[in-house]
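Readers of this paper often ask what the protein records in our data store actually look like. The remainder of this section carries one protein's record, kept here as part of the documentation.

:::
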Amino acid sequence: MDFVDIIDGVYVRDLRLITNPKGSVREFVRRDDPDFPGFGQVHIVETMPGIVRAWFRHYRQFDQLSCIRGKVRVGLYDDRPDSPTLGASMDFVIDADKPVVVGIPPMVWHGFATAGEVPSVLVQHNNQAFNHGQPDEEKRPHDANGFPIVW
């Protein structure tokens, strides 16, 4: 994938898709990946058309996500004061038919929405397990002021 702006610490890596007459396998996260952030939790997120899940960022958590059904519009925004890409944003679509993993470091704002008329499904790997009592996150509404991406 080609981007105009790349946010420091964010990556989009093609996934290996192995197909045969029985179906396919895609390797999403491997412990021997050079960008493996550690294991905390894996969860699956289904999003209905018209729903926006934005904005949020984590203080310590590193996210990896991949679309496994449909298409997902991903938005990222860097407002980290010490970042070399302060002010950069990324707005792109990932597709289950062209598998990639998107790595999102701590403190980068991110969100996503289904791109299309059918529900999308993301698999998300985090390097920390979600703590429901003390979430490692900050949230803002998808239409909050100060974000360069309009959902």
About this structure: The chain has a mean pLDDT of 93.
